[in-house]
Amino acid sequence: MTVRTVQYYDSRGILIPSDFSEGGRRLYTDEDVQKLKIICFLREIGLQINSIADILAADNARKVIEVFLEEQERTVAQEISEKNLQYEKIVELKKTIEREENFTVNQIGDMAYVMENRKKINKVHGWILAIGIVMDAVEVGTFIYGIMTGMWIPFIVGLAAVLLGVIPLIRYYYGHVLYICPECHRRFRPKFSEFFWAVHTPRTRKLTCTDCGYKGFVVETYGEKEE
Questions:
Q1: How would you classify residue 199: left for phi > 0, otherwise alpha for psi between -120 and 50, otherwise beta?
Q2: Helices and strands (H, E) in the chain, number of each type
Q3: What is the pLDDT of residues 34-67, one digit of tens each?
């Protein structure tokens, strides 16, 4: 703790010395030191001087500090969320640069768009996965039932229902994704037949760009409209 800081706290009225020496130096008691520790702790958790002054001057200090702590908690949580997002972007950019031999600055814009829409595309993937699990459960369950009882009608009905359900599921998926071309950096939606049969990974699909004609793997992102 520097002398200047103690002088500053005095000027703000939150750590007034108990006395002065003959030479005009500030004199502090053990009680003042304890008060200084309180001030330092509150400063460490991010409270502003004005807030600390209000807490120290309040008759109902407990209630006042609870209000300030709740507000500070929300502020810090928001800052942590923003820093985590910033960290994720840094890590993702580093991975892309290391992975791509011919990395260009234009790809940063593509990455930014993908990351901004990641929650939305993850939600689409989540719906697809959840419904797919239910369909698998129907198929496996009715198949086992058929083996155990010799009655295959439930399996046939279940299989038919699953096959009929796959079509709208794929249509839903197709209608909520776009693809970013690594050459022209435009977002596009391919024809359904090409989309359906294309080789793909969890984040990419091998398609032909409708703008520049590039053929190869393109990056999947969220999008409900063609752009």
A1: beta
A2: 8, 6
A3: 999 989 999 998 888 888 888 888 888 788 888 8
